[in-house]
Design goal:
With 127 residues, the chain is mainly α. The protein contains 4 helices and no strands.
């Protein structure tokens, strides 16, 4: 059997992971909305732990968190690329940026609704 371990593949993987972490750092340092979303994520996770939500509810909550943060990353990438390609105001570039921001907003609203569906009944029982 041939040895499939190749140091250059490991180095390439580690480099891509490092690039992704640099992108993640950029999002949270440069985007106020991403910092708000990260704060809400912390509150949601702490609340979920305290309320002992079910494994299936955890899956739903984590998917919502991942979708919102991933879309924020895509939105940021579109903004950075658009600003680089066309630094001056352009109505069509503005539309593209607005559409990307709208995608984040839609996902955030749906995630909030899902959060209410999962958490509100527990709060009602608690109080």
């Amino acid at each position: 059997m041939e040895n499939s371990f190749k140091p250059e593949k490991v180095n390439k993987f580690l480099k891509s992971f490092q690039n992704a972490l640099r992108g993640l750092t950029f999002i949270f340092k440069s985007q106020p909305n991403a910092r708000i979303e990260l704060s809400i994520t912390g509150i949601v996770i702490i609340t979920a732990i305290l309320l002992r939500i079910s494994p299936s509810e955890w899956i739903i909550i984590l998917l919502c968190i991942a979708m919102v943060l991933a879309l924020e990353g895509i939105n940021t990438a579109i903004e950075v690329l658009a600003d680089k390609l066309h630094p001056d105001f352009d109505a069509e570039i503005g539309k593209a940026k607005d559409l990307a921001a709208a995608a984040v907003l839609i996902c955030s609203i749906v995630a909030a609704i899902i959060g209410f569906i999962i958490f509100v009944p527990r709060f009602i029982i608690l109080f």
